[in-house]
Amino acid sequence: MPDLALIPLSALTGWLDYILANPGDFATMLRSHVTMVFIAEFIAIAVAVPAGIAATRNPTISTIVMNTGAIAQTLPALGVIALSFAYLGIGMRPAILAMTIYALLPMLKNTVAGIENIDESKVRAGRGMGMTMWERLRRIELPLALPVIFAGIRTSTVLCVGVAYLGAFIGAGGLGDLVTRGLSTVDTSLMLAGAIPGALLVLFFDQFFKYLESYVTPEGVAVQQQTDDITA
């Protein structure tokens, strides 16, 4: 982490001056950054949550899904962008692909963990009431697992905000444009104009999904969690 004492004082305030002087350009970059994050998250949710549910139903599928997710997480994002560039061209698509790959594992792990850690007595009660497997999933398992699933979405969103910066290398836009421009011109103010809003974006998404996580937590589960925290 850079020593703030080595950053010129003018740069610490200059990043805000740049944004205020160029609101249109900054708004376009911020919009591109957020757009890439949302598209990647939507695709990752559509893939990871059903795959995680399937993994809880079959041990073989679980092994395949979790291993695939782990391998995807180890792939370097810049390498994915470079390899997909030849097929997808310049723009957002290679960056979104890399972000989607990085978002998969946290969602997969949390979906599986959320469903598998449900109190078995609740599932047996649903089975005793004559519920089918899909009814138990829809009415018991998913509602109870939602807080854990949202925690995975929260983690993956933070990862995606960081990976989106790499999109600047293939013309995807986003806040990475300011960082790369600042690096090429050795302008610390420009670099900070791209980096600081990104950090604030991470904090915003983290708190937003933290709120959603608490909102979707069933009341009984929330009370039990508070009890566990007190007695721990």
Automatic annotation (TrEMBL):
UniProt domain ABC transmembrane type-1: residue ranges: 30-209
UniProt superkingdom: Archaea
Main location, first listed in the record: membrane
Keywords annotated in UniProt: Membrane, Transmembrane, Transmembrane helix, Transport
Entry protein name: ABC transporter permease
One term under GO cellular component: plasma membrane
Keyword field contains Transport: yes
Recorded topology in the membrane: Multi-pass membrane protein
Gene3D superfamilies to which the protein is assigned, alphabetical: MetI-like
Organism name: Halosolutus amylolyticus
Family annotation (CDD domains): TM_PBP2
Pfam family, one: BPD_transp_1
Subcellular location: Cell membrane; Membrane
Family as reported in the entry's similarity comment: Belongs to the binding-protein-dependent transport system permease family.
PROSITE patterns: ABC_TM1
Cited PANTHER family: GLYCINE BETAINE/L-PROLINE TRANSPORT SYSTEM PERMEASE PROTEIN PROW, OSMOPROTECTANT IMPORT PERMEASE PROTEIN OSMW
Transmembrane segments: 37-56, 68-90, 140-168, 188-205
